Amino acid sequence: RELATQQIYDNWEKYQKSDDFLKTLYLQSDAELLEAIDNIKIGYLLLFEYSIDYKQLKPDERKFFREQSEKISKSTHLVQELINERLEEL
Questions:
Q1: Are 89 and 33 in contact (CB under 8 A)?
Q2: H or E, element range at 3
Q3: 52-74 exposure pattern, b = at least 16 Cβ within 10 A, e = fewer
Q4: C-alpha to C-alpha distance for 75 and 38, rounded to whole angstroms
Q5: pLDDT digits (tens, 9 = 90+) for 9-30
Q6: How far apart are CA 77 and CA 56, in angstroms?
Q7: DSSP code of 53?
Q8: Which of 21, 30, 35, 43 is most buried (CB neighbours < 10 A)?
Q9: Alpha-carbon gap, residue 13 to 21, rounded angstroms
Q10: How far apart are CA 90 and CA 19, in angstroms?
Q11: How does pLDDT run across 34-85, given as a tens digit for each residue?
């Protein structure tokens, strides 16, 4: 049991010192990136609500739905670019 605990500890120490851990930690503390991701999540929640009764939406609501879908798609690409930029900075 003591050997297994030591192995777990050693693995954790190794992970903390790895590039993967540092990249994850760095990205999680990026306010601009987190805000962009939150905006995408909010957009998806809004789309979900609209999609439940899509057939019953008025034309202007359907237009809003399509515009919001396009906005989220563009935002997703921008977030990926932002992630790539941040990783290049490391």
A1: no
A2: helix 2-16
A3: eeeeeeeeeeeeebeeeeeebee
A4: 11
A5: 788 788 777 777 777 777 778 8
A6: 30
A7: T
A8: 43
A9: 10
A10: 9
A11: 899 889 999 888 888 878 888 898 999 899 888 988 998 899 988 889 888 8
